[in-house]
Design brief:
Number of strands: 13
Strand order of the largest sheet: 2-9-5-4-3
Distance between the termini: 29 Å
Largest sheet: 5 strands, mixed
Number of domains: 2
Helix content: 10-25%
Length: 267
């Protein structure tokens, strides 16, 4: 599933291409992909801005918004060259003749047309890279919860954008076992996790995100951040730091990779 770095990469690519353009029409090829929650029409609307909160893409129009969640296999593409066209679920046609294709093999992705973004985002926490997500703010969030730290990172209602891949990577770099209980983690270790989240996400953005299976950027290119993983998808391999075998367990309902020696468990 595309996480913050992949979604941020797509936002940065489509913003200059869409900003100021007008929507001519939309073609809905699979009806459940598009959920219209506005009485306003889309045809003729100007695209004012493209931004992101967590894993959501926010396209601001002249009076309404398109909120896009790629989910597991969603892709926003300017060209279908090299891609199977049968998985295209929606097409946004612009008046300048360009098209933005929403391609989604597993059909879990959604595009919402709303008058107010909070209609969709009301339960989405502060973005992990938002300036308002300060160290102090993060410390308060973590220490006032009683759940394991992996579940905290995945929930999206506390901070948003970190998914299974980057949670594993951030916890490894912070030396935290994924089953550590939030309220038991020392303040010093929480501060380290905060800094590692910022580092890991920004590093992944610099490398155009991680391509594990379906993720591609808006121009059909793969990301390369996966080349630098320390633990994710490395079960059975040696830890780069201590040499012990990387383990995989199920935590918060997700496959979780970690090093039992390098990552301390606080319970």
């Amino acid at each position: 599933m595309p996480e913050l770095p992949e979604v941020e990469t797509v936002v940065r690519e489509i913003l200059p291409e869409l900003s100021g353009q007008f929507i001519a029409d939309i073609d809905i090829l699979w009806e459940r992909t598009f959920q219209n929650k506005s009485l306003e029409t889309l045809a003729g609307r100007q695209i004012k801005d493209v931004s992101r909160q967590g894993k959501y893409i926010i396209i601001e129009l002249s009076s309404t918004y398109l909120i896009i969640h790629l989910r597991m296999t969603g892709q926003l593409l300017f060209s279908l060259d090299g891609f199977d066209k049968k998985h295209v679920r929606m097409i946004i046609q612009l008046k300048n003749g360009r098209k933005l294709y929403f391609r989604d093999v597993r059909k879990f992705g959604r595009i919402y047309h709303v008058d107010d973004p909070q209609t969709v985002l009301e339960n989405t926490g502060i973005d992990a890279l938002d300036e308002a997500n300060t160290e102090k703010y993060f410390l308060e969030l973590v220490k006032n919860r009683k759940l394991n730290i992996k579940a905290f990172l995945l929930s999206q209602k506390y901070i948003s954008g970190v998914g299974n891949i980057y949670a594993d990577e951030c916890l490894f770099r912070a030396g935290l076992h994924p089953e550590s209980v939030t309220g038991k983690i020392p303040k010093k270790r929480i501060k380290l996790l905060y800094n590692e989240i910022k580092y890991v996400l920004n590093f992944a953005i610099d490398n155009m995100g991680s391509t594990i299976s379906d993720y591609r950027d808006a121009f059909g290119e793969s990301g390369s951040a996966q080349k630098f993983f320390k633990v994710y998808q490395r079960a059975g391999q040696a830890c780069f730091e201590c040499g012990r075998e990387i383990r995989k367990i199920k935590t918060a309902g997700r496959g979780t990779h970690f090093c039992a020696k390098c990552q301390k468990k606080y319970v």
